[in-house]
Amino acid sequence: MMMFGMTGFWIAALVVFMIVEWAVPGLVSIWFAIGSLAAVISAFLGAPIWLQVLWFFVVSIAALAATRPLAKKYINNRTLPTNADRAIGQLCIVKEEINNLSATGCVSLQGKDWSARSLDGAVIPAGTTVEVVRIEGVKLIVK
What we know:
Elements: H1 2-23, H2 30-44, H3 49-74, E1 91-99, E2 104-109, E3 112-118, E4 129-136, E5 139-142
Parallel strand pairs: 3-5
Antiparallel strand pairs: 1-2, 1-4, 2-3, 4-5
């Protein structure tokens, strides 16, 4: 009776984890579903409750450790490029002297004015042509 009860518990946990995985975008609970499957098997084979729980945690953690880096890199990568990313590598003209210490600086890029800071902290005088290295918030970092 107890074996069937725990087997049913682990099957219910497996179903819940699979429903959550299906309902939520990205991988969030598949590792726990795999751990639940291991616990179902151990419960079916008559393992004591402590061993079922141990198998659940060990297999879940092992599955997470083995696949999370890949999942994070390929599946849950939510970084989306924007139109502003096109500015990187472009040349622009300094309209207002760039001085990181006084937090001043403005460049003109494709007809639009942007706040700017220098990459290495150097003061860059107005009229200088600079290259956009990266974007931080609404500021262009230039060299």
